[in-house]
Amino acid sequence: MLLQSLSLTLVASLAAANPISRRSAPPYSEGQAFTLVANVTDTSKAIFDPPINGWSLSGTRVGANLYTATLHAGAGAVFFVNGTGQDVSSASTSLASPPVDFGTGNYMPGGLQFGPAASNDREAYLSLNLGQFGTVGAGITPGLRGAYADLFIRFDAGTFVVCNETAPTYGRPQYPVRFEAAAVPDNCVAISLLAQCAPLPELHGVDEFNLRPLGAKCYDDVAAIDWSQY
Ligand SMILES: *[C@@H]1O[C@H](CO)[C@@H](O)[C@H](O)[C@H]1NC(C)=O
Ligand SMILES: *[C@@H]1O[C@H](CO)[C@@H](O)[C@H](O)[C@H]1NC(C)=O
Ligand SMILES: *[C@@H]1O[C@H](CO)[C@@H](O)[C@H](O)[C@H]1NC(C)=O
């Protein structure tokens, strides 16, 4: 008893003596849903004007029900982590979007999909196509295993990037987001995709699509984080 209270006193005085001890990661909440906000991690390349730091992931329509994942200055697409507890343990969750209905009464599922690029197997193109589930193997760094509330994918080590396509055309929009397992191309910058808490809309098609929304770590406001403290 005495030893315990002594050591508690010691800990308290040590903490008081070291008021500038660094925290390892910004504080986060547990949310039902979130948007994904780009945090530029390689600030050496100024290839975007205006800069895209703090922009959100959303879809740009490139065909019927086909949406390339891109960054936008406005509000982002809302996602939730879908899966069971067992899916979390095996990193087999996915990122799902609330199913949408275009007035037909038929809800279409959606999610974040990773597809291999046609030209090589070192990068994955990201899309938000409707009528397709999110790719299994994506989630927000769960529980206490990772310090940051960021998107992971269960592929090779690599990084998310956003690219400046100088001559964007229909079907090849500006600000596409990809996953690069090899070197970051010259026209792209490395980003992290950080989860920012958002309300979960009412879900339709829960039984039809076997939706299993899980809570996820997310930041209240990514723009308010002072990274110099971590
Ligand atoms: C966010 O970006 C800042 C500045 O580039 C960097 O210091 C920080 O490590 C990044 N955080 C994450 C989680 O990527
Ligand atoms: C992309 O890069 C080109 C060439 O440097 C530049 O002229 C253009 O403004 C950039 N596009 C965007 C959206 O930043
Ligand atoms: C959600 O997760 C469950 C459990 O793994 C799975 O059966 C279902 O297909 C998933 N639904 C979507 C839309 O990803």
TrEMBL record:
<protein>
    <recommendedName>
        <fullName>DUF7907 domain-containing protein</fullName>
    </recommendedName>
</protein>
<keyword id="KW-0732">Signal</keyword>
<feature type="signal peptide">
    <location>
        <begin position="1"/>
        <end position="17"/>
    </location>
</feature>
<feature type="domain" description="DUF7907">
    <location>
        <begin position="32"/>
        <end position="197"/>
    </location>
</feature>
<dbReference type="Pfam" id="PF25484">
    <property type="entry name" value="DUF7907"/>
</dbReference>
<dbReference type="InterPro" id="IPR057229">
    <property type="entry name" value="DUF7907"/>
</dbReference>
